[in-house]
Amino acid sequence: MHWHRVPVTGQHYVDTGAGVPVLFLHGNPSWSYLWRHLLAELGSDFRCLAPDLPGLGLSPGRPLRSRPVDQFLGQLDALDALFRHLVADRGLPGRGWTLVMHDWGGPIGTAWARRTPGVVDRLVVLNTIGFRWPAEYRVPVYLRWIRDHKCVAALARATDALPRLAVRVGVTVPLGRAERRAYLLPYARRRDRRAVEFVRGIPHDDRDPTWRLLEPEGPDVLAGLPLFVGWGMRDPVFTPTLLREWTRRFPHAEVRRFPHAGHYVTEDVADRLGCHIRDFLQRERV
Fold it and tell me: What is the DSSP letter of 191?
């Protein structure tokens, strides 16, 4: 497993394995450490790339833009830069990619796949979204507080309460002390907790301009792609309501429900999840 850096953006990423490229996109407040079990499982057969998204993990972030939609566009631009670097400098192909997405990595990944049609051939979805909130869904109250109130967001950034809460309530099998410390390491200093403010980019309603990046006006280029869904059913944020929306929109999807797993499904059921994803990728190999 090797660390590299995108020359243009300073974005850090893990590069391991050989074969068809698989790009792993984490959420907030996480980083590429989230993928360690899947990288070990899949690296023998696939070229696994796991970046730290800008402003998260070990990737320094650019100054926050004024509007959440511009912050989201900044993530897409950084993903473009990463892709160009991997193709031009690391010898990866320009097509045949798989996206593995979790949490806020889902909206970023699906928007980028729609922005670059023909690059992505397969999707793996893990407790995330790639569309507007369903009408019956409600964002948890503590995330709404951070999103809607600058003073609460500032207080959250002043502490590491959000990352600490995530590593405890996001799992059903408690993490060991070393694992918790690893998750929290990039957010130990206040200046490195700008990720907390990204919560303010969570869309409010159908009028939010961020949604136009997720909902295509014409035919969806992702509609017919092979899709695997692995879902922790005890996730307090990405609830079964969102899983039902995935299955409604993608009725051909292969779905694995894990009744006793939480938000960090990659932790609670790492071995089973890795085997299911490996089987899916090998069966749908392009």
Answer: G
Q: How far is CA 22 from CA 3, 15, 33, 73, 120, in A?
A: 16, 10, 16, 22, 9
Residue 220 contacts by C-beta under 8 Å, 6 or more apart in sequence? 114
Give the closest residue to 196 by CA, choosing from 21, 42, 71, 38.
Answer: 71
Confidence band, pLDDT 50/70/90 cuts, at residue 217: confident
- Angstrom CA distances, 67 to 145, 149, 202, stand at 18, 14, 11
Note whether 82 and 13 are within 8 A (CB).
Answer: yes
Element (H, E) at 43: none
User: Residue 228 belongs to what H/E stretch?
Assistant: strand 227-232
Average pLDDT over residues 123-141: 89
- Confidence at 196, pLDDT banded by 50, 70, 90: low
Rounded to an integer, the average pLDDT of 45-71 is: 78
pLDDT at 63 over 50: no
| The model's pTM | 0.93
Write b or e for each residue in 213-236: b if 16 or more Cβ atoms lie within 10 A of its Cβ, otherwise e: bbeeeeebebeebbbbbbbbbbbe
Q: Could you write out the DSSP letters of every residue in 233-266?
A: TT-SSS-HHHHHHHHHH-TT-EEEEETT--S-HH
Confidence at residue 143, expressed as pLDDT on a 0 to 100 scale: 75
- In degrees, rounded to 5, the angle at the alpha carbon of residue 76 between the alpha carbons of residues 71 and 79 is 130
Which is nearest to 123 in space by CA: 257, 17, 241, 281?
Answer: 281
CATH number of 2-137+210-283: 3.40.50.1820
C-beta of residue 273 within 8 angstroms of C-beta of residue 258: yes
pLDDT at 142 over 80: no
